[in-house]
Amino acid sequence: MNGMQQTTKQVHTNWRKAVRWLLFLLLWLSLAFASYITFKPEYEYKPGWYENHFDKIHKDLNKVRSALTEFRKRHGRYPSNDEGLIAVKDLSKPVDPEDITLRVSLSRRYPSNELLKSAAGPLSAWEVPFVYENRRGIDPEKFAHSPVEEDHAGRYSLEVDDGIYIYSVGGWELSREYDGFLTKMYLEIWGTRSLFLVLLIIYLIFSYRSRAKKVQQIWFTATKVAAKILLLLLSFFTGMASGSVTCYIMMYFDREKRPNLTAKYCTLLEKYKERGIIKEEAYQTLLETLKQEQKALDEIRED
């Protein structure tokens, strides 16, 4: 009977040891994975990449704001929604396919510091006009769900004055993309860290032993603990090294998105027309002007 009990106890002890080592292995792997995710090149590079794009958008928006401020000084008012940014002569200039400066600017993969202009108004780096909202004297409900209302972080829109707003359609789309990226990034980073903490707690609970240890076991136990800590640190630095990267962050506005962004811009104009913010005549004029300007830009691209 004593032999059976001894055998059962030995099996139980071996099983606990096996489970402890399995848990430690999982703990080691989870820490390596958590450190890799935390220092993932994409998560080091992309936040700065997006922020640089928003900086460029804001520089252009500030130039538009300055021109609107000058317009107000000269005329004592801001343009109406029907007039839009086309009314600001400093911002409105027909695209000329023969303009060498413009051709050089558009031939670059990365945007220049100059604000692009067209007969449809100033263009963002995606070559899509900025949107203008004059909310003065108009029922606020007509501007419900405007992209401006979504821009709590101020990434792609600007309040020029009380009730006067400008924003970028491309920036609106980029901001949504950035929010999705941040959600994914934080879920992965904190998910892997949480997994490590959960496994650590389980390991510590499972590995708990009575403090009444024999003196001769203390050094042996301490050595094992130190070895495990070193292994965990090694897994952390291994994951960190495999994920780290140093690079120069450049801006790249994907102009292939221009047709899609232009379509979104036209959809927004249509909503403004349906809500009575702009008249039918102004809507049709702007659409026709935009069509001609986009055609001129396409001619430059094709050459």
Question: Can I get a quick summary?
Answer:
The chain has 303 residues and is mainly alpha-helical. The chain has helices at 2-38, 41-75, 100-107, 147-150, 169-206, 215-243, 258-274, 280-302; strands at residues 131-134, 157-161, 164-167.
Sheet with the most strands: spatial strand order = 1-3-2
User: Poorly predicted ranges (pLDDT <50, ≥5 residues)?
Assistant: 210-220, 236-251
Structural class: mainly alpha
Number of helices: 8
Strand content: under 5%
Return the average pLDDT rounded to an integer. 78
Amount of helix: 55-70%
Shape: elongated
- Radius of gyration, in Å, reads 31 Å
Distance between the termini: 95 Å
Per-chain topology:
Elements: H1 2-38, H2 41-75, H3 100-107, E1 131-134, H4 147-150, E2 157-161, E3 164-167, H5 169-206, H6 215-243, H7 258-274, H8 280-302
Antiparallel strand pairs: 1-3, 2-3
Helix pairs in contact: 1-5, 1-6, 2-5
Which features characterize this protein?
303 residues; mainly alpha; 2 domains
